[in-house]
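Thread title: Can someone regenerate the structure for this chain?

I was given the following input by a collaborator and told the matching structure tokens would be attached. They weren't. Posting the sequence so someone can regenerate them.
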Amino acid sequence: MASTRIKICGITTKEDARDAISCGADAIGLVFYANSPRSVSIDQAAQIAAIVPPFVSVVGLFVDEPVASIERILSTVAIDLIQFHGDETPQFCQQFGHAWIKALRVRPGLDLSGACRQYDRARGILLDSWQEGMPGGTGKSFDWQLALGELSLPVVLAGGLHAGNVGNAIATLRPAAVDVSGGVELSPGRKDVHKIRKFIAAVRAADHQVEGIEHDG
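Best answer:
Regenerated them for you:
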């Protein structure tokens, strides 16, 4: 089993970016959604992205953002991967010349296999918790049993993850990556380096355990 990739989302300062990277994060997330307490300006984002070293990905999160706004941000900020978190169509997502993933808010009745087919040019599907009126950042996990089964795209698991439950999440779904924000925070938009360190350690411990199970099997 490959190591589960780890994204620390909702980074708002260079200090928090450095902490996440030094703890072993594979990616950091910058939120370009004004209604989020973790939202960053273009200037903030550019300054943060500028200190990210090679082979750590910068992910830009958008929620039904106008095309011109996305293009302006992409021309200014060194973004490696776009995360679409709204009601964007596949055609919308494909037009920016960047690798991208599509977030889905999971609830009973959602056809995950069909969504993977619909967004088949995405690098992966991010599974988050559904809550009325909230495109993400709910701080709540969803029923992981709803996402069991083989999907045609790699899964990025989000929604209410923290050091205490991410191991069970990995054992249950074996996602390609996990995405955490509130679970490693002091307050919305400010990260806690100790929580980040514990979260990443929990992911690596789960990887080791799953690898042992697969090897024994």
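The chain has a mean pLDDT of 93.
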